[in-house]
Amino acid sequence: MSDLKKHFNEEAQEFDQRVQRNLPKYDQMVEVLINAIPDAKENPKILDLGCGTGNITEKTKERFPEARITCLDISENMIEIAKDKLEDYEDIEYVIGDFTQTELTTKYDAIISSLALHHIPTDEEKEKMYKSIYDALEIGGVFLNADVIKANSKYNEKLYEKIAQRDVMENGVTAEEISEMNRKREENDIPTTIYMHMKMLENVGFQEIDIIWKYYANAVYGATRKD
């Protein structure tokens, strides 16, 4: 995923601004994910997979000030921005690495991710990642993901594209910017359908699998390790 690393190192400085413009429901999606983290422990151990600039970790720390969080990302530049953003918080560890190649040896109460796993090239590799996540969770631990999903039909694919274009244009994004955004998505995004995600999670042993929130091509879903 060396090309992806280069892409995110280049995008790091503008990521926060762009994600707000390009995903008008971003804040709502993040809120749904954070609200879904169980509050069984005051100081849960949490892994933020593909942490980017630290947005999810920041919101998690606001809800769980005593949480011990590991931020893992492939981009050094993203990690540096996350460190600056989160400098007032304690108990945060930063790891630079490709999460598809990083062995997860610690056990976590929750593993969370946002706008990251859809970059994994194939469904086989996605399922392998889900198995690594499952194995890295404590019994009763949860996995939560907020991400881009693929439409399950040509009709819905056109519908998702139509709504996405409408939303970003209402957010002030120009036609030229949309064209560039679509080009980058074609180069870097490999989403799969929500149904395939549910199947892969079940295949590796997860239970209590659910779609918590969905807005066209974006979704928040989660699952629990029960045994």
What keyword list fits this structure?
single chain, alpha/beta, Rossmann fold, 9 helices
Largest sheet: 7 strands, mixed
Q: How would you state the average pLDDT, rounded?
A: 93
CATH superfamily: Vaccinia Virus protein VP39
Question: Remind me, CATH topology?
Answer: Rossmann fold
Q: Would you identify the regions where 5 or more consecutive residues have pLDDT less than 50?
A: none
Number of H- or I-type helical stretches: 9
For the secondary structure, the number of strands is 7
Radius of gyration: 17 Å
The span between the termini is 32 Å
Strand content: 15-25%
The helical percent reads: 40-55%
Domains, number = 1
Provide the succession of SSEs.
HHHEHEHEEHEHHHEE
Form type:
globular
Query: What class would the helix/strand composition place it in?
Result: alpha/beta
Record the strand order, biggest sheet.
3-2-1-4-5-7-6
The CATH class assignment is: Alpha Beta
- CATH-defined architecture: 3-Layer(aba) Sandwich
